[in-house]
Amino acid sequence: MKTKNLLLSLLCSGLAFGQVTIKEKKIIINTDSDAISFETVIEYFKKDSSKNNYDIFAINSKGYSISLKKDATMQPVLQIDKAKSDSLQKSSTEEKIGEITFKRNTELTITVNTTDKDPKERVYKIKTQTDWRWTTTFGANAIFYTNRNKFISQTDSGLQKVTEVQSNKTMELMPTVMFNFMDYQDTISYGFTGGLGINFEEIAVFVGPSIGIGQNIILTAGVGVHKQTIPNSNYSVGQTIDSSVTNDNLNESQYRVNPFIGISFRLDKNPFKK
User: For this UniProt entry, which residues form the secretion signal (predicted)?
Assistant: First the structure.
């Protein structure tokens, strides 16, 4: 990454690496330069799309074959004829051979093939920079119980019998560490989040879509897999039981899927820094 950033800064300063130079929204292919293949990343401007437009020029005095490929689409092979080649050799002028509008995650591949006795191929790749990345946030999730049934022991006609009731516990709050994949280029961003919740008794897993606010606050909603107390399958409603059987014996903990909403905070970025 450091190598790419250094290369990008040098290119933006107008220095050429190999046969391709990026300068002032121009991509210049100079077949007279030394051939060194390379790959670099340029910035993608989401708010001002006009800054993503580049004109492609060639200085091709040797008449080499130049092909352009945008993503997976091959553009027509560009080759300057001999008469124009002789003119370029004398004046060393730039000939416009095309233009390109970079979008997010666009890759332009420039291939130069020599026509000498010993043919060689040089490949240059120019990509737009993406701001989609993984970040870690810390917060809390509220899990909502969709099934709150549980068994209790009640006395009926002098006998202890199993009765099904609704638990008063409608939700559970759990501290979490969340892993978010989203585009942090906008103030309001959308992405995907997964995470883990931990308390003194269990570990829960969460997954769902998320919204980032100001690059520091992440709101998530989805489903969580966690332990929940449910009726023990060894007992049934109305069953007569011994007085030694407690309410804890009538229920058991199993992993269940329930909806959740959560909030988490990104701590690796200063919210007050512009």
Answer: 1-18
Domain ranges of the chain: 2-128, 132-266
Best CA proximity match to 192, nearest among 207, 217, 178, 209? 209
Q: Which of 236, 265, 270, 232 is nearest to 249 (CA)?
A: 232
3-state secondary structure of 2: helix
Considering the entire predicted model, what is its pTM?
0.62
CA 236 to chain centre: 48
Along the 274 residues of the chain, how does pLDDT read in single tens digits?
444 444 444 444 444 555 788 888 889 888 877 666 778 888 888 778 888 899 998 888 878 888 888 875 555 544 444 444 444 443 357 888 888 888 877 888 888 888 777 788 888 888 887 777 899 999 999 999 999 999 999 988 888 999 999 988 899 999 999 999 998 777 888 999 999 999 888 899 999 999 999 879 999 999 999 999 999 989 999 999 998 899 999 999 999 999 999 999 998 765 555 4
